[in-house]
Amino acid sequence: MAMSGYCHIHGPFAGTYCDVCTGFAVNPAKRLFATGATRDSDAGKPDYEGFLSPLVLERYGRYMDKHRTMSDGSLRASDNWQQGVPQSSYMKSGWRHFMDWWACHRGHPATETLEDALCALLFNVMGYLHVVLSARVPTELDADPTQLFSTVDDEP
Description:
The protein has 156 residues and is mainly alpha-helical. It has helices spanning 48-51, 54-66, 87-106, 114-143; strands at residues 5-7, 11-13, 30-32, 38-40.
């Protein structure tokens, strides 16, 4: 079937109207819901709900909350890491947790549980990426906001 429209509820269709939502004209640049509500098209927009797992984020949040308590008993702010951690620290820590993940994967003893190793890796990867993106924001974002999310392969 050649697609000429897209119904947010029923998917692609041929013609001017969704056969299921008869009577509702559909514009590919706009979503029209059975209730009559409209929204701009979501084409080209990140689908965070689809890309992320609530199970993983919930477990990661519990891991991070547990590690807010420092060895002296004080509690650090949840966003403390955003004040600046050297990339070398993220890299060294990431490798230690990767080794535990790998040991767990191979059935060998590890210094932490598999879930903790994976959460720690997430922390180190996100922290490292935060540093990379934060360094680009003031200069590149002002010139061209689309370049904030370019990859190394996109660089000239």
